[in-house]
Amino acid sequence: MDAKFFECIVCFEACRDCINCLKCNPILCKSHVAELHRDQCPSCRDEPFHYQENVALQRIICQMNAAARVAAPTGEPRENVAARVEPEESAEEPEEEPDAEDSAEEAATVEPVETAEETEAEDNDNNDDNDSISRYGSKVPRPHPYEDQYRKLPNDAHKEAMLAHVHGCQDSKCHTLWRGPWGSFIGGRKGKTHFHLTNCPAGKRLNELIGWDYDDPHC
Ligand SMILES: [Zn+2]
Ligand SMILES: [Zn+2]
Ligand SMILES: [Zn+2]
Ligand SMILES: [Zn+2]
């Protein structure tokens, strides 16, 4: 299948959290809704913009990305992609949350993982398959209808390693160990509402060891 088929009409990248206008067919990333000019559909100009989640397409893209990972496991993550996705949003919870950097205490479903003892990060296997993931944590399917998406959960030892890294690392994107609907990750201050995953090499590796895919954090 041609990847162009899944291109977002706003950002021209593979569509993330696909939605489409109720009046026309082109797809776009849900993250653009907040930025639409005059709340118009960017394709047919219908306003206000009414849309539906394109769950079927979200799943197809998810599966294509999974297949692509098997074929080319070392793809470079694209900058910014994660920041446009809001992990807290779902079809059941349309409420939008602004980039509230100062309201971390109010997080409903994403919260910093507190507690910490310093432990050493295990750092001896670059393998990305499920066997190695199970050594550091687990990937658990999310509830219906999102069972093609996964929570990435570290085991106790790996959680300690992640916390130790957060406390020791000066990288601004190793700010907090966040926990939310898609699991736990080391990320920056916007991690409460975005996939603000760290790009610090050691922090990123700790995320990837439990199955975080920087190209598609839902999977
Ligand atoms: Zn887009
Ligand atoms: Zn439209
Ligand atoms: Zn996905
Ligand atoms: Zn770091």
From TrEMBL:
<feature type="region of interest" description="Disordered">
    <location>
        <begin position="72"/>
        <end position="150"/>
    </location>
</feature>
<protein>
    <submittedName>
        <fullName>Uncharacterized protein</fullName>
    </submittedName>
</protein>
<feature type="compositionally biased region" description="Acidic residues">
    <location>
        <begin position="88"/>
        <end position="105"/>
    </location>
</feature>
<feature type="compositionally biased region" description="Basic and acidic residues">
    <location>
        <begin position="76"/>
        <end position="87"/>
    </location>
</feature>
<feature type="compositionally biased region" description="Acidic residues">
    <location>
        <begin position="114"/>
        <end position="131"/>
    </location>
</feature>
